[in-house]
Amino acid sequence: MLDPATFYFFDRTDRLNVDQGYIFRGIQFLGVASATGIVVTPTCDLHNAEAKDLSVVVVLPVVPLWVFAWHLARRERGDPWLEIERKIDWAKLSNAGKDRICGHLHELIKGNQNGVHYLPPANGLGDSFVPFDNPIGVPITNFPALEFVAGLRAPYREYLSARFCSYYLRVGTADFSKEDRREIAGSCLGNTDR
Questions:
Q1: Could you give the residue ranges of the DSSP H alpha helices within the chain?
Q2: Rounded to whole angstroms, what are the CA distances from 159 to 19, 21, 22, 33, 44?
Q3: What does the pLDDT read at residue 61?
Q4: What sections of 90-147 are H helices per DSSP?
Q5: Cα 99 from Cα 84, distance rounded (Å)
Q6: Which residues contact 36 (CB under 8 A, 6 or more apart)?
């Protein structure tokens, strides 16, 4: 079997200190002093950082997959105080609950879960996911001191970027009232009484 990490990731070889899709360890996220994160600031902005006066880079947390499974198990058991543990006690879950958790994990890995992105293991980083709901800004001057883990290869870097953007993109248009829709439909049919 081929190692997915060889298709997804590369070791840093270019001249940049930071680039889109780079994964770093040592970032402070929500009180965790040495968390792992992935850069989502576009490459074009990072390449022209001085010209664009870019001082902060947008980073998303990279979280171990077992944490995602733990949250699902906690929800299935209806126990908000379930202790964080690496191994889920499957015996305490119903068969239907187990099936739902496995289904959620399969959908996450396939890329069908909105708001999260799956990453296979690489360079000491186990199966992970990237939640889109907690982006943070990291000063660009901090990156030389951070530990580089891996970089996403194209097209996986672009895929993550597109999913992140679509998570926040919302195109809104004016909504038509029920009466307006009737009037428009009636005028199309040549009858304004509908």
A1: 4-8, 43-47, 65-77, 95-110, 156-168, 178-188
A2: 15, 10, 14, 28, 16
A3: 93
A4: 95-110
A5: 21
A6: 23, 24, 25, 27, 61, 62, 125, 128, 149
pLDDT, tens digit, for every residue of 26-58? 998 877 778 899 999 998 888 887 767 888 999
Cβ pair 183, 55 in contact under 8 A: no
pLDDT in tens, 82-136: 555 555 666 777 788 778 888 888 888 888 888 899 998 888 888 899 999 889 9
Apex 52 CA angle, 135 and 33, nearest 5: 30
Q: Is 29 left (phi over 0), alpha (psi -120 to 50) or beta?
A: beta
- With contact defined as beta carbons under 8 Å apart, do 93 and 77 qualify? yes
Strand partners, 116: 131
List, in order of start, the domains of the chain with CATH numbers. Answer: 4-178 (2.30.30.110)
Q: What is the side-by-side order of every strand in the sheet holding 136-139?
A: 9-10, 147-152, 22-29, 32-39, 56-61, 136-139
Provide the residue type at 8 as one letter. Answer: Y
pLDDT in tens, 5-22: 677 788 765 555 789 999
